[in-house]
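Course assignment 3, question 2. Fill in each field.
Student: A.L.
Task: Predict the tertiary structure for the chain below.
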Amino acid sequence: MKVEYNLVRSKRKSVAIQVGADCSITVRVPLKMPQKEIDRIIESKKDWLCKAIISQREKAKNTKIYTDAEIELLREKAKLIIPQKVEYYSGIMGVKPTAVKINSAKKRYGSCSGKNSLNFSLYLMDKEEEFIDYVVVHELAHIKHHNHSKDFYKFIEGFMPDYKERMKLK
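Answer field:
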């Protein structure tokens, strides 16, 4: 069986294979990598690709579609709850964000900019409170550690010892 994919050549040293939400496959390779080598890599990853495609199809089935009214309710709820949680945890953690914003991101529940501005998705409001708290602490931790190093997770663990269980509530 031949695997169809989009090939992107660029100035990179490694190969990356991505299965999109639409189940399309993108393969990113170094500029001068021979096609035979690309084919060999794709062949060796067929099992992984099948699992990734099945996973994306399952996600699509389980994705809730929101009405405009529901989105507005989530946005209002987020504007009330998130800043309070950020204020509470930032005081405990000894970090201070430059801003707290609510957005409609669907793939990320939170992010922290290089200037320590925090963004949270309104869709986070559809999750359990323990998970919401974890995302707030996670993003606040990025103010101290702008990465996902061991020190980053140790910092989180100092304030939320059960963070690993909370992550699973996603």
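Instructor remarks: Strands lie at 6-10, 16-19, 25-30, 99-103, 110-112, 117-121. The mean pLDDT is 95.
Grade: pending
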